[in-house]
Design brief:
Number of domains: 1
Distance between the termini: 81 Å
Subcellular location: Cell membrane
Helix content: 55-70%
Family: Belongs to the binding-protein-dependent transport system permease family.
Radius of gyration: 28 Å
Structural class: mainly alpha
GO cellular component, one term: plasma membrane
Number of strands: 2
InterPro entries: ABC_transporter_permease (IPR051393), MetI-like (IPR000515), MetI-like_sf (IPR035906)
Membrane topology: Multi-pass membrane protein
CATH superfamily: MetI-like
Oligomer: single chain
CATH architecture: Orthogonal Bundle
Low-confidence stretches: none
Number of helices: 14
CATH topology: MetI-like fold
């Protein structure tokens, strides 16, 4: 009697037949990966290398080790730019955390024409910084509108050149930066306000809370994560200020408005000292990473409390 072996239906298939790796999606991703590596990772790695060299574009790079970083520590102009950036922070960040919240509360009402006010407040955000800086430069001119209005109301006797005065130039630029960005942060706050359950507000009003108490005891606790996000974004944007300073003052007078990004630009593209400029760029990158980490911790803490 002969026996016939029946092949098992549950015989495991070879790994190659069992799991096929699709190549087509990776082919579509390849151009993006190449571009990202070429214009992001490769320049970053090159920057780390050139920060340890003396490089003046027309001459080959010469390895100097930590000399650029030692020169940075002894460079008074570098520390002036750091000090100015900190002053910008003290003026701009508190204003962008508080005033847009007030504006968002004002426009968070169901009134006729309220959408027009929202659009007006947001309009500076979508306007080119170059155009805005040029307009404000004329506004601050001795014969500009600001001096005319102040003299009209008797607040000053003589015209002031706000951008050529070492005491007023930096606050003048900081006010422009705050004004232009307020609409953006107002929209963020407005989205947060509209996500607050109406039951909380109505319950507070039933308990006899006035407008101020509703804001203090209902809005602010619910907006803690939004406030943390605003703090993160405004801090990072302030540290990277360049365009408005470049157009309005060029870093003057007497470096009183000079920021670190503008100083990096001057070293790299005016003096062509690429090695030193790259070292300052790496330092700016490190500062941004530290600030991002700190703000991230604050943001996580705000979300946990909220």
């Amino acid at each position: 009697m002969s026996t016939e072996t029946v092949p098992s239906k549950n015989k495991p298939l070879p790994l190659a037949k069992k799991r096929k790796i699709p190549l087509v999606p990776y082919l579509f991703l390849l151009p993006a990966i190449v571009l990202f590596f070429t214009f992001d990772y490769l320049p970053t790695l090159s920057a780390f290398y050139y920060s340890f060299t003396e490089y003046h574009v027309l001459a080959p790079a010469e390895w100097v080790g930590l000399e650029n970083y030692r020169n940075m520590v002894d460079d008074p102009k570098f520390w002036t730019s750091i000090q100015n950036s900190f002053t910008y922070f003290l003026i701009i960040v508190p204003s962008l955390v508080s005033i847009p919240l007030f504006l968002a509360i004002l426009v968070n009402q169901k009134l006729r024409g309220i959408h027009l006010f929202r659009m007006i407040y947001y309009l500076p955000v979508i306007t080119s910084m170059v155009a805005v800086a040029i307009v404000w430069k004329y506004l601050y001119h001795p014969a500009g509108l600001l001096n005319a209005v102040l003299q009209l109301f008797g607040l000053q006797q003589e015209s002031v050149n706000w951008l050529l005065n070492t005491d007023t130039a930096l606050p003048a630029v900081a006010i422009l930066e705050s004004w232009k960005a307020m609409g953006f942060y107002m929209v963020i706050y407005l989205a947060g306000l509209q996500s607050i359950p109406k039951e909380l507000v109505e319950a507070a009003k039933i308990d006899g809370a006035n407008r101020f108490r509703v804001v203090w005891h209902v809005y602010l606790p619910q907006l803690r994560p939004i406030i943390a996000v605003t703090l993160v974004l405004s801090t990072l944007n302030t540290v990277q200020m360049f365009t408005s300073i470049y157009i309005m003052t060029g870093g003057g007078p007497l470096d009183s408005t000079l920021s670190l990004p503008l100083y990096i630009y001057q070293k790299a593209f005016v003096e062509l000292d690429m090695g030193y400029a790259t070292a300052m760029g790496i330092t700016l990158w490190a500062i941004l990473m530290v600030l991002t980490f700190i703000n991230f911790k604050i943001s996580r803490g705000g979300q946990a409390v909220g």
